[in-house]
Amino acid sequence: MLSTIVFVLFVSMVLIAIYDVFQTKHSITRNYPLIGHIRFIAESLGPYLRAFFYARDREEKPFNRTERSWIYRASKNASAVVSFGTTRNLNEKGSMYFVSSPFPVQEIDAIKTKPITIGPHARNPYTTTSLINISGMSYGSISKNAVIALAKGAKLSGCWMNTGEGGLTEYHLAGGCDLVAQIGTAKYGYRTLDGKLSDECLRKAASYPQVKMFEIKLSQGAKPGRGGLLPAKKVTAEIAAIRGIAPHEDSISPNRFPEINSAEDLLDMINHVREVTGKPTGFKVVLGNYDWLHVLFKLINKRGVESAPDFITLDGKEGGTGAAPISLTDYMGLPLAESLPALVDLLNQYSLRERIKVIASGKLVTPSMVCWALCVGADFVNSARGFLFALGCIQAMRCHTNNCPTGITTHNAFLMRGLDPTDKSVRVGHYVKNLEQEVGEICHSCGVHEPRELTRAHLRMVSAFGTSVAFSELYPDVIPDKSPSTS
Ligand SMILES: Cc1cc2nc3c(=O)[nH]c(=O)nc-3n(C[C@H](O)[C@H](O)[C@H](O)COP(=O)(O)O)c2cc1C
């Protein structure tokens, strides 16, 4: 028996070696038959070996082991207590610290997050106490089971869920949570046969009481200048029917709305959607420069504050995606660390800070990062990948292949079976609860009662000299107006 196995192995190796010598695609194996394959095997195993054995706790990207472990523990409702001291490099340029108060808020004096009303001029304003919400991920980019688990988890924790640009589906509605319906550039779910915005579809979506707001997606951090991209492998017959496209072909959204060519057009579209749906309406964007915001905010003040978007969702360039070209993911757009203070300052400058709520996203997945965003001026935080980790994501980085090993970004029935929506919805609920709890602990240490009382005075950042500077010194209040109309 053994000799047969050895013989078969030997013959296979000889055949592979002969093939290697005569093939013309790979010079390595042509020059080094058989052993040249070791290079390819090592290359494909590299990411796993580095992730499991070699990468240090705070080294991996996009999310390091420390961040992921915190989310895994929070989702399982396990203790997040550590001992012996921090392993953070405290003197690294850009590191942040919160300013501890000599007189922290006692637990007995802590108050719950106060409710906020978004869209006071809409027929149906939205009032919510939620702080951390589920960012847009379409049904298509993520699986049916993942959508259901997130929707149920959002209901358990009282946060909202954004549908992403693939349209509103029965799976989003199944959880009973508050929903933000996203309108992407392809208008999936909200378009007429000739590609225009369909008022009928908007009205239908708005007729669900669960749908609280509408978000017009101009861009997302991982791929500004590129619309949504759902590879053919993931466009099942059901998803194609929901989107109104052909199955098993790439689903590619345009890189912008053809009808939005200026700040005027954007305001027109926002006001149209709000008028038709009666619900608060805002837009999602990643910033590249600030000039057009001067134009937009001046226009709002000219038309009247009722015309303003009810919220702006600001996505940082560090944002995630189900599929995008690497050049855009790596190089296009501004990270949140730059764009969030700028947006908040500009809103203040044009006296629109109260009117337009700011929702920030981009790696805001742990309590410290949520508090950072609140200190800088965000009203709400959205996360996509934080919630994927809560669902069990292992950062395999294969969302675009339809082979996600945890069943989150795949429609392969076998892989999806691994994700039990009921069990994972509980984890989503725990994640939000524990995130809010630890955000509360940071707040109380800073001496504030409620997360939205955090200000830039509570944040310091390490400078090139290795000592920290107050955040307000690093980011002066006003962004100079260099928009064409005023220069
Ligand atoms: C799998 C996946 C799918 C996404 N789909 C959408 C989408 O349909 N619409 C959108 O605006 N953003 C989409 N995003 C971006 C997220 O909504 C979010 O803006 C970004 O990932 C930043 O949040 P995070 O750093 O917490 O992941 C997607 C992200 C991921 C990971």
Describe the model.
- It is a single chain.
- By secondary structure, this protein is α/β, with parallel strands linked by helices.
- The protein has two domains: 2-45, no CATH class; 109-486, TIM Barrel, CATH 3.20.20.70.
- Helix content is 38%, strand content 12%.
- The chain is built from 17 helices and 15 strands.
- It has helices at 2-22, 27-31, 37-54, 65-75, 144-157, 170-174, 199-206, 237-243, 263-277, 291-303, 326-331, 336-349, 367-376, 385-390, 413-416, 421-446, 471-474, and strands at 96-98, 116-118, 126-128, 132-134, 160-162, 178-183, 211-217, 229-230, 251-252, 281-285, 311-315, 357-361, 380-383, 459-462, 468-470.
- The strands form four sheets. An eight-stranded parallel beta sheet has the order 4-13-12-11-10-7-6-5. Strands 1-14-15 form a three-stranded antiparallel beta sheet. It has a two-stranded antiparallel ribbon with strand order 2-3.
- The longest helix is centred in the C-terminal third of the chain and has 26 residues, at 421-446.
- The termini are far apart.
- The protein binds flavin mononucleotide.
- Flavin mononucleotide binds at residues 135-138, 141-142, 164-165, 182, 217, 220-221, 228, 284, 315, 319-322, 361-363, 365, 383-386, 399, 409.
